[in-house]
Write a structure and sequence with these properties.
Elements (H helix, E strand, L loop, with lengths): L1 H37 L3 H14 L4 H14 L7 H20 L5 H18 L7 H14 L4 H13 L3 H10 L1
Helix pairs in contact: 1-2, 2-3, 3-4, 3-5, 4-5, 5-6, 6-7, 7-8
Amino acid sequence: MRKRILAVALVALVPLVLPACSKVQAKSAMKDGNKEYKDENFKRAIENYERAVDKDPEYTEAWFYLGSSNQALYRPGKDSPDNKEHLDKAIEAYRKSLEVNNGSSERLKKVRINTLGALVGIFAEDPNKNFDTAHQYAQQLVQDNPNDSKNLYAMANLLEKFEHVDEAEGLYRRI
């Protein structure tokens, strides 16, 4: 009887323990990814960051660095399916980072700023050059930090780049 009660109790604990193990494994994979990222081994970093988000799909920083690693492998002007795939995967990971980022800490707020900045940059240049999309991400940056002159300058530069000169000049004056 005691063994049966113990077995039932252990089975009941499994759902509580497994998520904690996954988070530990995700943090370990993130640490490995950060080492590879620092050493500019972006392909290996991608493998580790993918492992991290597989273990913890809500891992904001892992999604960001997965995007950043893919973007680091992208070569502007190189016309190959693999190259384009790196940029597409970067965009997908950055968007996922924004989706799961609840902004509950200064660290996560900084990740959000960096993620939005990366997306603005991607959509401000070929091959994904698109004013509406870049502007949407830039507006989020400014909304989150309305008094940050760096973000306001970035918005003004974006407006100027896409030939919205009057709006850009107005924003430059405001800054």
